[in-house]
């Protein structure tokens, strides 16, 4: 169920805590399904209520298919988001590549509008070839252009969610993403806890360490803005350079632990959207995370 409230001059959607996968897992196709149109019903039957459609290799979805997915999502109460292409780089030293990256974001917003998705997840760029300060300042400038173009195109009701990234040469630390979100109060972060864990060389090992992240988020953006924040979660393998590979909940040699995050969600009385990125098991692990959350909450 969705609840609508006004925050300052913007309409915010109160979502209640939701769980779902990033993309379509192998089990979906093994069950005989072929089209993402079937995902909302399939997820609902599992007991899940969120779905992040993947445009990570390009926005190739047409209007008809997007609208069909959106109708099914509405029918089965599935909260939709879309992941924009991975190769977006608003910090490129080449102006033409930055311009193309803006277009990729706008294309993702268009697909989201067709689908009825309320959020898009964006990788903002890399500073592997440029100075860090220049990269951050450039991304803030280009992101402002994105917002203006999105508003002019009628996409102002879709939230852009810059993602915390897992590799040290990517523009995507917690502090950097919060700085980006400071340019417009409609922006909210995608807090990828696997990426935070990898970037911090295994920094999330207790509820207290997750709570510290939430303190930083609330202190920077305010409680109302982060209450329904967008999250990614999985276990992760990392090297000195950061993220290496996502793993499943059963791969217990890798962190972080979802139960630690669940404790803080309940303690803080927040209601995020939690998208699972477990390797090939994203729907099954999303359901397992929901069960962990409900058990701690005292539900069934």
From TrEMBL:
Keyword Electron transport part of the UniProt annotation: no
GO biological process entries: base-excision repair
Highest taxon above the source species: Bacteria
EC number: 3.1.21.2
UniProt keyword annotations, A-Z: Endonuclease, Hydrolase, Nuclease
Molecular function GO terms recorded: deoxyribonuclease IV (phage-T4-induced) activity; DNA binding; DNA-(apurinic or apyrimidinic site) endonuclease activity; phosphoric diester hydrolase activity; zinc ion binding
Keyword Nuclease appears in the UniProt entry: yes
Start and end residues of each Xylose isomerase-like TIM barrel domain: 41-287
One Pfam family per UniProt: AP_endonuc_2
Gene3D superfamilies (UniProt xref): Divalent-metal-dependent TIM barrel enzymes (3.20.20.150)
Coiled-coil regions listed: none
Catalytic EC class: hydrolase
Name of the molecule in the record: Putative endonuclease 4
Source organism per UniProt: Acetivibrio saccincola
């Amino acid at each position: 169920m969705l609840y609508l409230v006004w925050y300052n001059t913007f309409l915010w959607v109160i979502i209640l805590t939701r769980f779902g996968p990033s993309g379509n897992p192998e089990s979906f196709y093994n069950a005989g399904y072929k089209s993402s149109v079937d995902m909302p019903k399939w997820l609902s039957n599992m007991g899940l209520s969120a779905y992040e459609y993947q445009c990570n290799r390009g926005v190739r979805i047409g209007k008809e298919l997007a609208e069909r997915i959106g109708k099914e999502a509405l029918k089965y109460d599935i909260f939709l988001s879309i992941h924009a292409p991975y190769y977006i780089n608003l910090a490129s030293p080449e102006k033409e590549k930055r311009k193309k990256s803006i277009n990729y974001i706008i294309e993702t917003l268009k697909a989201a509008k067709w689908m009825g998705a309320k959020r898009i997840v964006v990788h903002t760029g890399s500073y592997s070839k440029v100075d860090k300060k220049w990269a951050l300042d450039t991304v803030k400038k280009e992101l402002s252009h994105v917002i203006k173009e999105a508003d002019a195109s009628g996409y102002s009701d879709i939230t852009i969610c810059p993602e915390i990234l897992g590799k040290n040469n990517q523009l995507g630390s917690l502090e950097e993403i919060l700085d980006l979100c400071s340019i417009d109060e409609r922006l909210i972060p995608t807090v990828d806890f696997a990426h935070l864990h990898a970037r911090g060389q295994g920094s999330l090992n207790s509820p207290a360490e997750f709570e510290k992240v939430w303190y930083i988020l609330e202190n920077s953006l305010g409680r109302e803005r982060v209450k329904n924040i967008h999250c990614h979660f999985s276990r992760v393998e990392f090297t000195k350079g950061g993220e290496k590979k996502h793993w499943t909940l059963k791969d217990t040699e890798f962190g972080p632990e979802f139960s630690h995050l669940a404790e803080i969600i309940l303690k803080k009385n927040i209601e995020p959207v939690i998208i699972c990125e477990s390797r090939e098991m994203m729907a099954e692990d999303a359901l397992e995370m929901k069960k962990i959350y409900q058990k701690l909450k005292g539900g069934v």
